[in-house]
Design goal:
By secondary structure, this protein is α+β, with helices and mostly antiparallel strands. The chain has helices at 14-22, 30-36, 44-62, 100-114, 139-147, 161-171, 209-220, 237-251, and strands spanning 2-3, 65-78, 80-86, 119-125, 130-136, 175-183, 188-193, 201-203, 223-234.
């Protein structure tokens, strides 16, 4: 058995002080004291002992006794995904229905439906990137913000992805950066994952084949994190119940007939 809060036992220093106060002699003789004090079934001394025991048991419960401490190590594979969504003039074209930007937003909806408990942040990339959502697992909130974004502030500048990547790295120590943009040299909306050399490029498709490829690339970049869980069997309720019983005994008494 161990105690998770052993410092609670410091409160036991008051026990000898209380005992000393209890044993302090009153300015009455025993015969006089018997006449002025009503006799009950439980003597005053026994009451004090019950209160003292109750106090000790309550302190023991406060110290949280436990048994059977078992530690389990669980490995969680999780990413911090920072999405850089192009908001430049290139995304205004409607060669992809309804527009390149709106098509990218629809793809994000599909992607979010496949993700499980991954932290996702979103930046809109223009000449200067701005944050739409910090890291969160509430994907519906990101979609809501994208639906209600003021498009009058978009599509009027070029995109600066180098600056956006710098901003993304400030949101997480080890981010997986997913860039969604239009590349004139490739003639398509593409998704680039953590690569300046465009080795991890996924081209836009009207089916969900592009989303499946993105998920496959993200799974290869998963970061493993080990969490230690401690399982214990709490025993505090035993001294707590004992303390309540002694407190009850200290307050309960049957009047004795003389």
């Amino acid at each position: 058995m161990e105690f998770l809060n052993p410092f609670a036992f410091l409160l036991l220093i008051f026990v000898p002080i209380l005992w000393k106060i209890k044993n302090k002699k009153l300015p009455f003789s025993k015969s006089v004291l018997n006449k002025i004090v009503i006799n009950y079934g439980v003597s005053k001394k026994k009451r004090f002992v019950f209160y003292l025991l109750s106090y000790i048991f309550f302190i023991t419960a406060l110290a949280r006794p436990v048994s059977g401490i078992v530690q389990k190590h669980i490995t969680i594979k999780k990413n911090d995904i920072i999405i850089l969504l192009d908001g430049s003039y290139l995304m205004k074209k409607n060669d992809i229905y309804p527009t390149r930007f709106d098509a990218a937003v629809e793809k994000l909806k599909v992607l979010f439906s496949k993700l499980k408990d991954q932290n996702v942040g979103l930046l809109i990339v223009k000449d200067y990137p701005y944050l739409i959502s910090p890291l969160t697992t509430d994907y519906n909130s990101i979609i809501y913000l994208l639906k209600h974004i003021n498009k009058k502030q978009l599509f009027d500048t070029a995109s600066n992805f180098e600056l956006a990547i710098q901003k993304a790295k400030k949101l997480s120590k080890h981010p997986v950066i997913l860039s969604i943009s239009y590349m004139p040299q490739k003639g398509d909306v593409v998704y680039v994952i953590n690569s300046k050399k465009f080795k991890n490029v996924v081209n836009f498709t009207y089916s969900n084949q592009d989303v499946r490829k993105i998920l496959s690339l993200l799974s290869k970049k998963e970061n493993s994190k080990t969490i230690t869980l401690t399982q214990t069997n709490e025993l505090f309720y035993y001294p707590l119940i004992a303390g309540i019983i002694f407190l009850f005994l200290g307050n309960f008494s049957v009047r004795r007939k003389n």
